Amino acid sequence: MQTVTNDRQQEILKQARANGRVTVEDLAARFEVTPQTIRKDLNDLCERRLLSRVHGGAIISSGVSNLAYQARRFVAQTEKEAIGLAAARHIPNRASLFINIGTTTEEVAKALSQHEDLLVITNNLNVATLLYPNPHIDVIVAGGPVRRVDGAVVGEAAVQFIHQFKVDYAVIGASAIDDEGALLDFDYREVRVSRAIIENARHVILVADKMKFERTAPVRIGHVSEIDLFVTDRLPDGKIGDICREHSVEVQEVGGSEDELAV
Fold first, then answer.
1. Residues 85-133: tens digit of each pLDDT
2. Is the pLDDT of residue 1 over 50?
């Protein structure tokens, strides 16, 4: 197991696990040291694969296990809210839709509060809790075991349940997206539900912030070519933009001052 060399680095790691992300500016003020000192600490922790560097700071390194669900809510929170609002604008009133597990898909659910006559089918208990009080939205929850860490309903019963429907839209998230366009996650049981959702929707909307391109996960959900609309704060430079253009995937970037259709 990788070790941490000093008390400050141990505390930095603790803060990252609690909050999902740490910044150089905040850590320098907290420990009353220079930003250069903090950058060295972060580089050391990244070399040990305990953290992964992002602009201005670091996040918990991902691999075979995901960041705690509550901590993920704080990662790119502003970006996720903007993505949620933008994605919700693509869903008309009187539509049927799937929403899967994820902190970004929950932001879409929040943004649907003013819609009318929606049917929402979900394996996300957090989404169901957000939407069921709304008199203009009917909610159906997939059956099966509930994953305690995040309220996801997973397993074969949920997969079979989803296959009963054919809906207008699916709103899905992913834990990571690689340079080849693969959509990745951590739990094969969750992935099976996501696959069923994709296969039983007429129009698939992927919602993911740019940090998903800085992470990795071991289980393949599918490929970005299966998506109709990708809503993100910023599409990174590289092959992913070419892949989206090649497969006629519409991309909406919401990271600037105005929403922009990028592809």
1. 999 999 999 999 999 998 899 999 999 999 999 999 999 999 999 999 9
2. no
Q: Would you state the pLDDT for residue 149?
A: 82
H-type helices in 77-212, by residue range?
Answer: 77-88, 103-111, 125-131, 156-162, 188-199
**Considering the chain, what percentage of its residues have pLDDT values greater than 70?**
89
Q: How many residues does the chain have?
A: 263
* Residue written as token pair 């929040």: 110
3 state SS of 154? coil
Does residue 26 contact residue 35 with C-beta atoms inside 8 Å?
Answer: no
Phi-psi region of 76 (alpha: psi -120 to 50; beta: other; left: phi over 0): left
User: What sections of 65-136 are H helices per DSSP?
Assistant: 69-72, 77-88, 103-111, 125-131
Question: Minimal CA–CA distance to 234: which of 217, 212, 249, 215?
Answer: 212
Q: Using one digit for the tens of pLDDT, what is the confidence trace for 149-189? A: 888 999 999 999 999 999 999 999 999 999 999 999 988 99
Kindly give, in sequence order, each residue whose CB lies less than 8 Å from that of residue 14, ignoring residues fewer than 6 positions away: none
Q: CA–CA separation, 99 vs 123, rounded Å? A: 7
Name residue 3's amino acid.
T
The CA-to-CA distance between both ends of the chain, in Å, stands at 44
3-state helix, strand, coil in the chain (%, to 5): 40, 25, 35
pTM check: above 0.85:
no
